[in-house]
Amino acid sequence: MKKILIYILLLLPTIIFSQENLSLENAIKIGLKQNFDIQINKRNLEISKLNNNPGKAGALPKINLSAKKEEAVSDQSNNPTSFIQEILKSESINATANLSWTLLNGYGIKASKEKLNQLEYLSNGNLTLTLENTTQAIILSYYNCILQKDRLNLLQNVVNLSRERLIYQKTKYDIGVSSKIEFLQVENTLLTDSSNLLTQKLNYNNSLKNLNLVLGVELDSDWNLTDEMSTKTQIFNLKDLQSETFRNNTNINNQCINNEIIRQDIILAKSAYYPIVSFNSGASYNESTYDVGDSGYEGSNTGETLNYYANLSINFRLYDGGNYKTLLQESEIRDLINDLNIEKKHREIKNQLSINYEKYNSNIIIYNLRKKAFDIAQINYQLANDKNNRGNINSFDLRDIEIAYLNSGISYLQSVYNLNESYLNLVKITGGILEATE
Question: What is the phi/psi pair of residue 271, to 5°?
Answer without folding.
Answer: -65, -20
